[in-house]
Amino acid sequence: MNLSESLIGKLKKSESLVFFTGAGISAESGIPTFRGKDGIWNKLKPEELANFNAFLKNPQMVWEWYEHRKKIIHESKPNNGHLAIAAFQEIFRDVTVVTQNIDNLHRRAGSKNIFELHGNIERNFCIKCKKYFNEEINLSLGVPTCECGGMIRPDVVWFGEYLPQDQFRGGEIASENCDIFFVVGTSGVVYPAASLIFSAQRSGAYLVEINIEETEISGQCHESFFGEAGKILPVILEEAKIQRGKTV
Ligand code: OAD
Q1: pTM to 2 decimal places
Q2: Mutate to test the pocket of ligand 1, among 162, 197, 212, 236 (most ligand atoms within 8 A of CB)
Q3: Other CB atoms closer than 10 Å to residue 214's CB: what's the count?
Q4: What is the pLDDT of residues 144-165, one digit of tens each?
Q5: Which of 35, 49, 111, 128 could form a disulfide with 106 if both were Cys (CB 3.0 to 4.6 A apart)?
Q6: Which domains does the chain have, with CATH numbers?
């Protein structure tokens, strides 16, 4: 795999990086993506599972699905892609992860500055009083409820819902102020998250895509690397170390 002269030059001179990630970064950890071959939304209907009305209609079913995903996530580990992103923190002043994933794997890999656009599967909240809960859910006791009587739901963004504004704004500021914006493992079709790609582009960032295949946003990027994130990110990391004199 060859890096372009432009990217090598950017790695040498840049101070601030954003990694905008999607389900593809976690695919090598064994967590299914949403679209493409074997994608979750090929087999299951988002309108029945990732939607507030579906939750009101059948909270037990929605909970069972999230508990199933949580189990897969708990059994998985950060992969070389997550670990490489965390390692960039050792060589650049300012590294921000803006993720659409709810799986916590960036945090477990050691990334510090993370904006979670679509929530986090480890957190829950009451739909009535909005109190947060981190405790494990025991679904055999039924749908969990708050002491106020409201149902507790996973703290993830469902279709038709607003993104957490502090997370989106934080991601937007980072995107508008970075030198290199890496778009990793996302189809780039879900908005408003994908709009950050254009915020970075308008602000003059160098856009680098890493994906196993061409996407709708490939044409917007300065360069695309087609292959697994867990293989490509470590190569870019090693080059950055060379350019910045951080090799041991
Ligand atoms: P998608 O499933 O739409 O896209 C995953 C992308 O990862 C695809 O473009 C794949 O080609 C790519 N990919 C797969 N394996 C890869 C690998 N090993 N290395 C690099 N790329 C790989 O997932 P997202 O773009 O994250 O939202 O989807 C965005 C949102 O749609 C999700 O956050 C979720 C979903 O509905 C909510 O639940 C609100």
Answers
A1: 0.96
A2: 212
A3: 11
A4: 999 999 999 999 999 999 999 9
A5: 111
A6: 1-31+78-118+163-248 (3.40.50.1220), 33-75+121-156 (3.30.1600.10)
